[in-house]
Specification:
Elements: E1 2-4, H1 12-28, E2 37-39, E3 47-54, E4 67-69, E5 118-123, H2 129-140, H3 149-200
Parallel strand pairs: 1-2
Antiparallel strand pairs: 3-4, 3-5
Length: 201
């Protein structure tokens, strides 16, 4: 993924995809290398480049080789993401051997030569995270994974813990403010007493 450091200029959707969707993709597909590049230039386009690794060619005469995506398979934002990965996936970043045509549409894939990986580019500028995920799913032929009871329970527990943490944060902030206020009053009182003693002398 390549997108700007700030949300201006149509980079809000890519940022939300990075924060909300990409962690789930990586969690379910730990062997898939995923790289994020933050760009300082806000006018730069936000793009996602997906590399597809070709499967091993069959030794049978007349057989044809097929390709498998080296990226993970996503799902819609409301359910977990598939953990299906290619058996030929490497833990090291892949390097494209065939560049997509500059005249091709942003989300189109280049036509690979036999035995070479294919590259697909998704244009993310001015798109929200759901649209990006939908296009990602279409390009990679993703399959959704249904939410289990255990997943729902864990999500509910996580939401409850976040609420408790927010309440604890507010209570701690109020307590710290009170301590600082009392400290300031004591210092002012000491300063006033010192001034009074100096005047009396």
């Amino acid at each position: 993924m390549d997108f700007a450091t700030k949300i201006d200029g149509g980079h809000r959707g890519p940022r939300k995809f990075w924060r909300e969707c990409l962690p789930r993709l990586k969690y379910h597909n730990p062997a898939i290398p995923m790289t994020v590049n933050r760009i300082a230039d806000q006018s730069s386009p936000a793009t996602m480049t997906i590399f597809f690794s070709p499967r091993a060619q069959s030794s049978t005469s007349g057989s044809t080789s097929s390709e498998s995506p080296s990226s993970s398979r996503p799902t819609n934002p409301d359910i977990p993401i598939s953990s299906t990965t290619s058996p030929t996936t490497s833990s090291a970043p892949t390097t494209p051997t065939a560049n997509p045509s500059p005249d091709a549409p942003p989300s189109a894939s280049s036509t690979p030569e036999q035995g070479r990986e294919r590259v697909a580019i998704i244009e993310m500028t001015h798109k929200d995270e759901k649209n990006i995920l939908t296009e990602f799913q279409a390009v990679t032929k993703a399959t959704p994974v249904p939410v289990t009871d255990e997943d729902s329970q864990q999500m509910a527990e996580l939401i409850e813990k976040r609420k408790i943490a927010q309440e604890d944060y507010k209570r701690t902030a109020i307590m710290n403010e009170k301590i600082e206020r009392e400290k300031t009053l004591r210092e002012m009182s000491r300063a006033g007493a010192s001034t009074a003693r100096a005047a009396a002398v």
